[in-house]
Amino acid sequence: MSHTDTDDRAHADVAPGDEYPHEEFGAGLRSYLIGLALATLLTAASFWVAQTKVMWAPAIPVALLTFAIAQMGVHLVFFLHLTSGPDNTNNIMALAFGVLIVFLLFGGSVWIMHHMNYNMMAPVEGGVRMPLQKGVPLQPEPQKGVPMQHGGGGHH
Amino acid sequence: MLGKLTWSAIPFDQPIPLVAAALVGVVLLGVIAWVAVAGWLPYLWREWITSVDHKRIGVMYVILGLVMLIRGFSDAILMRSHQALAYNAPGYLPPEHYDQIFSAHGTIMIFFGAMPFMIGLMNFVVPLQLGVRDVAFPTLNSVSFWLTATGALLVNVSLVVGEFARTGWWPSPPLSEVTYSPGVGVDYYLWAIQISGIGTLMSGINLVTTILKMRAPGMSYLRMPMFCWTALASNMLIIAAFPILTATLAMLTLDRYLGFHFFTDEAGGNSMLFMNLFWAWGHPEVYILALPAYGVFSEVISTFSGKPLFAYRSMVWATLAICLLSFMVWLHHFFTMGPGGDVNGVFGITSMIIAVPTGVKIFDWMFTMYGGRVRFTTPMLWSVAFLVTFVVGGATGVLLAIPPADFVLHNSLFLVAHFHNVMVSAVVFAAFAGYTYWFPKAFGFTLDEWWGKAAFWFSLVGYVWVFTPLYVVGLLGMTRRLQHFSVAEWYPWIVAASLGVIVMVFGVVCQVVQLVVSIRRREQLRDVTGDPWDGRSLEWATASPPPSFNFAVMPRVEGEEAYWAIKQRAREQARLREEPDYEPVEMPLNSPTGFVCAFFATLVGFAMIWHIWWLAALGLAGAFATFVVFAWRDRVEYEIPADAVARINRRNRASRLEALQQARRKEAA
Question: What residues form the membrane-spanning segments (chain A) (predicted)?
Answer without folding.
Answer: 29-50, 62-80, 92-113
